[in-house]
Structures are given as C-alpha cells and as structure tokens.
Amino acid sequence: MGATSDRRFAPDTLREFAKALFVAAALEEEKAAAVAHYLVEADLMGHTTHGLALAGWYLQGIADGVMTREGMPDVVSDRGPAIAWNGRRLPGAWLTSEAVKLACERAATYGTATIAIADSHHIGCLAAYLSIATDRGYMVSIASSSPSGAQVAPFGGRKGVYTPNPVAHGIPTPGDPILIDISASITTVNMAQRLVREGRQYEHEWLMDENGEPSRDPRVIERGGTLMPVGGLDHGQKGYGMALHVEAFTQGLAGLGRVDELKGTNAAVTVQVFDPEAFGGRDAFLRQTGWLAETCRSNPPRPGVSHVRLPGENGLKRKREAAIDGVRLVAGILDQLVPHASRLGVEMPKPL
Predict the structure, then answer these.
(1) Can you give the pTM of this predicted structure?
(2) 112-120 and 82-86 as β-strands: parallel, antiparallel, unpaired?
(3) Is the pLDDT of residue 308 over 80?
(4) What is the pLDDT of residues 272-293, one digit of tens each?
C-alpha cells in the first residue's frame, strides 16, 4: 500500500477539496462531484493507487483536452435491458456511476440490464461503484479494459497486448455485501509506477522483462517488460483466459477497441446488474449467499492466519473507521496536488 502520512482527514473534507479542484479545472459540477466522490471512496476502502493518487493525472488530462469536460454520452443502442454508449472520453467515474444507476433502474423492470461503454476516460477503482447496486439488494458486475494500453502479454508470449483488465462483483448477503475486485494480471501499472517513484521492488517476481524473464523490478515496464498474468509462469493461462473474456465483454460489446487504434487515455467498460427477485427470488438468493459467507468466515484458518475474510471485508472496515477517525492518505499524494491547487486557486485541505 505504501507508507501513510501521520495526518488524518475527514472524508468530506477530501471530497470537497477534490470537487473544488475539478470544478476549478472547468469540469461540470455533477461530473466533478462524481470524480471526487469515487476517488476518495477508493482511498477510504484502501485501494490507494486508484484514489486521490489519480487526481493529478486527471487534472492534467483535463488541461490537455484528453478528458471531455461536459455533455452526455452518445446512445449507440438502447433495447431496454441492453444499452451501448459512446462515452466521448467523459470522466470515467461519472460515466460508470451513471451506468450502474441506470442499470439498476432497468433491472427493476427487466430483471437484469447490461450497459457497454466505449471511449470512456479512466474509471479508477471498480469496487467503489459496487455499493450503488448492492445497497438496493442487486448483484452487480463491472469490467474494464484500456484499448490503448498493452502491458500484459498473452500466456506464453513476451510482448504486451492488453491491460490488467479488472473485474469487480458486488454480491448482496444478509449482512455486508461481498465486494470482489480483481484483475487478470497479478499487479497493476499504477502499483509499478508507485514502486518506481519510491525506489522499491516487488517482493515477488510479478513481472517479466523485455526478454520474457521473471523480474521484481518495476522499471522493466518502462523498457517494454510486462505484468505477469494471474497464475504466473506455471498457471498463467487462467489470467490469460480472464483477460480475453474482459476484452470481448468490454470492447467487443461496446463495438470499439484495439483494432481501431485509439490513442490517449481511454477505457471500455461494461456494467451488468441483476435483481435476484426476477430469478429465484430475493429471499432464496440471500439464503444461498448468507450460507456461503458464513461458511467461509467460519472456516478453520491455516497457520499464520487469524481468520478467513470475505473479499471487501477489510475495505468496508476501513471505510467505517475513516468515517469516525478520519483517513490517512499514502505519503506524498497531497504533495503532488499542491501545484494543481496553486494553479487553480484551491485551498489545500486541513487535517483533523
């Protein structure tokens, strides 16, 4: 995760600060609020490479004209439960959150809904959007890929073809939802960049250099190296298969992707929401997921493990604690935003 600062900040203070930055950068207010909310949400949940660490990059993208500041996505197709948008490089946090909200509305009518988005800007942390649906008792899946990125090689190869291709799933239970956020690669580009800045290496050989040899050095990415697929050298076909599915699920369904040779920061995103009531019934669904959650949690832990956790359990715990005690950001994140705040005339946030 990286070393954290000693200072704590109220979540609302960080949201207001981030929103002020994006509004001052001429992002429409609704979009600025969404970007601010979901970046801070990522930090609250502990996904620190995809929180305010991205704000400076986003602000530079706005200044360079890479991120579209205003307007709506183009509706490519709308058949009720099946929708396709061209995101026009609008902010990914706003597009993704709006897509989950719309998919929930359509699922209330049709039982399920799928929205594929082409040409979005970067969407950040997928897990941050899951509660939009799980709070309504709906199950949700989100997948993302970047058609202009190529940092992961197909299993057996050594030249990058696609991106980490994350997927996230929100599963309601009688208690807290299960919040899964994983990718088809072992690590991410953002984490590699953080380690380079901090002068550190990975603890394990999660990368391949340009010759296809295992490496712990994050700088190999800058030299044409790649991120290892999930499963590594011996079972990497698993991550490879996941990545191919995400490519088709996002770019294929959206109708725009790598073959179109897109340039600059972009993402293809697919959101899918299910209302359990339209299938076997909400109570029956919760009976199954409740049993599964409890059985996993009560599983006898192996040596060195205090207890078995469910995906998202730590993130929800961190978020609750931050609401009371404030959040500590990874050291250096706010320092990177000082030049932007100065340029845009925004006051830096005050700690608790």
Answers:
(1) 0.95
(2) parallel
(3) yes
(4) 999 999 999 999 999 999 999 9
* CA–CA dist 135, 337 (Å, integer): 32
**Is 87:40 a contact under the CB 8 Å cutoff?**
no
Residue 246 identity: V
Instruction: Write the CA distances from 45 to 11, 64, 128, 327, 332, integer angstroms.
Output: 11, 30, 8, 10, 18
Q: What is the CA radius of gyration of the chain?
A: 20
Task: Answer positive or negative: Cα dihedral of 28, 32, 35, 37.
Answer: negative
Q: 216 phi and psi, to 5 degrees?
A: -105, -5
Write out the two tokens for 92.
């990914």
Q: What is the 3-state secondary structure (H, E, C) of 261-288?
A: CCCCCCEEEEEEEECHHHCCCHHHHHHH
Q: Is 243 helix (H, G, I), strand (E, B) or coil?
A: helix
Q: What percent of the chain clears pLDDT 90, i.e. is strictly above it?
A: 96
Ordered alpha helix ranges (H), the chain = 11-24, 29-45, 55-63, 92-110, 131-134, 189-198, 232-235, 237-247, 253-254, 282-297, 313-325, 333-344
Examine the pLDDT at 1 and tell me if it is beyond 60.
Answer: no
pLDDT above 70 (res 51): yes
- The residue assigned the tokens 């993130």 is 315
**3-class state of residue 338 by DSSP:** helix
Least reliable range by pLDDT among 3-12, 197-206, 288-297: 3-12
Structure-block tokens of residue 1: 């995760």
